[in-house]
Amino acid sequence: MSVNTLLGRLGVAIGVFLIVSPAILFFLWMISLSVKFEVDNAAYPPVFWPEHFAWKNYADVLSSNRFFTYFKNSLLVTGGATALAMLVGVPAGYGIARMAAHKSAIVILIARITPGLSYLIPLFLLFQWLGLLGTLWPQIIIHLVVTVPIVIWIMIGYFETTPIELEEAARIDGATRWQVFRHVALPVAKPGLAVAFILAVIFSWNNFVFGIVLAGRETRTLPVAVYNMISFDQLSWGPLAAAALIVTLPVLLLTVFAQRQIVAGLTAGAVKGG
Amino acid sequence: MRPPSYWPFVVPALVTVLAVIIFPWLFTIWMSFQEWKVGAPTTFVGLSNYLRLPADPRFVEAVGHTLSYTALSVLLPLVLGTFAAVLFHARFPGRGLLRALFIMPMMATPVAIALVWTMMFHPQLGILNYLLSLVGLPPQLWVFHPGTVIPSLVLVETWQWTPLVMLIVLGGIASLPTEPYESAQIDGASTWQMFRYITLPLIMPFLFIAAMIRAIDAIKSFDIIFAITQGGPGSASETINLYLYSVAFVYYDLGYASAIAVVFFALIVALTALLLVLRRRAQWNALGSDT
């Protein structure tokens, strides 16, 4: 091996170390904060590895009965908004791809560039008028603003690349449009379904702005609940960091295990909700 | 055989989009011409909500904050993301895992990471001032001082969104032909020269896409700013989006808030269009240099 290749490899190693360490160090510090007692969290110079671990921080968060209400709310809002988005978005992506109706993508584009807050004012009034405030429905419905465009956008891309010959053959054999979609097109687009589903789940789970306006005491999702913890415990960093970690843990695990799908989805349309 | 109609597939989504995207927009435009405070009847006031904007110092200030925040939050991730993409294009052991760790900041729940950043920014107990002291730099007030709050928030935004730029540019680099590099290597070009004269011009279209997406996301950034500073100290980090939130859901001045929403949207469209024009001009220049 020449000196130059060796130097090149060393350069890449140093560069990768520099560029990745802010992410790694941040999450390590987040873990460290979450397992320390207040004495250690308020120490200067900072304590990195505590003598006594404060597992109590996690126990406190998990054992508060409110936590499970908020967790359930998050599951219902994200689950509902993703399921509905798949239900209407997957067929729509198929229809748009087959009709080659590329102009319709402009609506998706508008949704992509509109600040989430703009939807909140009119929909807030609508939900108030319908008497839905206080239930989870307003949040499930408004999360569609995030999930539906993601699903449609990704599915258009997938259905455009799947071969049409198979579908034509099925139609000649007498299959209906619906049967062709259900039994021919859909199975081929399975990887796309996974990508759309994962991204919709992540961006709905992470959403904060809709919740702070629409959620009441009983209908908070986890991100809103963790934000509300700040005002109550101004200086107890341990439980706060533990709660923050619990909220974001499902997403971080998904990032590690479904990295391929996430990268494929983000680079396909670079969609992001909110 | 008559080609099948695909309309039935699209109708449910069309209804959904009309209800949650088109209707809110039409309603917002209509409301922007009304005087409407919650609990009071609406009255048509014509353009007066729009005319209030240039005379509202808080709005004018918010536009300034938004522009500087956006400019920095496009440039820094663009430079660092390109650097990261070049690195991740190389093959090295542990690449997959390191890439997963690298993209974690943009997938993590924004409010959760904002809380931890707030702790890290703490002037007395924060880890950042400790790190500064290690290299002999004076402690900073970070998000607690009007002069440093926007750069500090940009630091978070950069940390969070550099990975997206990396992914887009990495996709671009992966699609490049290998021949130019082979002949450059034979001619004895250095790594920097190859990057500067081959890679960079070829990935320009990807850089423009990344810049556009970054600009759209940065200009409407909300979660991070709201959770860390709520627009403070004072109103030093109040962007248009945060001001819009206050007008709508703190003061409940819904007509005026709708006018802000419309102007804000127009600003985003203008910014997107500007970047598209720049991109076209860059393409023309590239064509021109060929002849």
* Approximate helicity band of chain A: over 70%
- The overall pLDDT average of chain B reads 90
Number of helices of chain B: 12
Question: In percent, how much strand structure appears in the residues of chain B?
Answer: under 5%
Q: Can you count the beta strands of chain B?
A: 2
What portion of residues of chain B is helical? Answer: over 70%
Are there runs of chain A of 5+ residues with pLDDT below 50, and where? none
Query: Helix and strand succession of chain A?
Result: HHHHHHHHHHHHHH
- Spans of chain B with pLDDT under 50 lasting ≥5 residues? none
Radius of gyration of chain B: 24 Å
Shape of chain A: globular
Give a count of the beta strands of chain A, DSSP E runs of length 2 or more.
0
Task: Summarize the main sheet of chain B.
Answer: 2 strands, antiparallel
Largest interface: A-B, 96 and 85 residues
Strand order of the largest sheet of chain B: 1-2
How many H/I helices of chain A?
14
Summarize the structure.
The complex is a heterodimer of chains A (274) and B (291). By secondary structure, chain A is mainly α.
Protein architecture, described:
The complex is a heterodimer of chains A (274) and B (291). With 274 residues, chain A is an all-alpha fold. Chain A is built from 14 helices and no strands. Chain A has helices at residues 3-34, 38-41, 56-63, 65-99, 105-113, 116-130, 137-161, 165-172, 177-188, 190-206, 209-214, 222-232, 237-257, 259-269. Chain A starts with a helix and ends in a 5-residue tail after the last helix. By secondary structure, chain B is an all-alpha fold. In chain B, strand 1 (34-35) and strand 2 (43-44) form a beta hairpin. A two-stranded antiparallel sheet of chain B has the order 1-2. Chains A and B meet through helix 1, helix 4, helix 5, helix 6 and helix 7 of A and helix 1, helix 3, helix 4, helix 5 and helix 7 of B.
